[in-house]
Amino acid sequence: MTYLDQMLMTPLSSVEQLGIYALAINIASLLSVVTVSIRSVVLVNESAAIDFERLARHARFSLVLSLVLALATAVTLPFLVPLIFGDAFAASVVPALLLLPPLVITASGSVATAGLMALGRPWLRSISIAIGMVLNVVLVVLLVPPFGAIGAALAMLASAIPPLLSILFLRRYYGLRVRDFLIPRPADVRGLLSMLGGIGRGRGEN
Prior knowledge:
mainly alpha, 206 residues, globular, 83% helix, 10 helices
């Protein structure tokens, strides 16, 4: 799903729109590094001994952290893109901003996906990805010709489907509550602030 839309861009639009979109998606994808890192740690922990409460807590923490990073990115993008890449790539700002919400939405679902894999149900993840990919291709074909890079960014909303389906699968097979994965709690925010404070103190000591 990350590269299929880029492969379809040129025949559906133009090389110029592909360049604009490629920069936008690479900038936005920096946020996914955090999500993937958390998912990897969760997969190791939950494979050893599954703990549904801990799984949901990690999902919410990933969501809060991704939201903070997305907001910071949204504020700085309009200034940094022209400054670093030049005015020719200023058109990448809007597609990049449109790509941020799906990445935030998928943050908690990505952790849920790790839970499914730890529980021995990776085939559910495959079903989710297949559904999301089909919808993504349909949206790319419909939206890219009239809207170019912006249409491709809107089509990537389909990338939020597989992680969200993972949460629904946990609800269906294990009775977990969807809101425990998608609605942050005050303790999650305090935990994030505590972590950031610890990083700041560590740098100060160094």
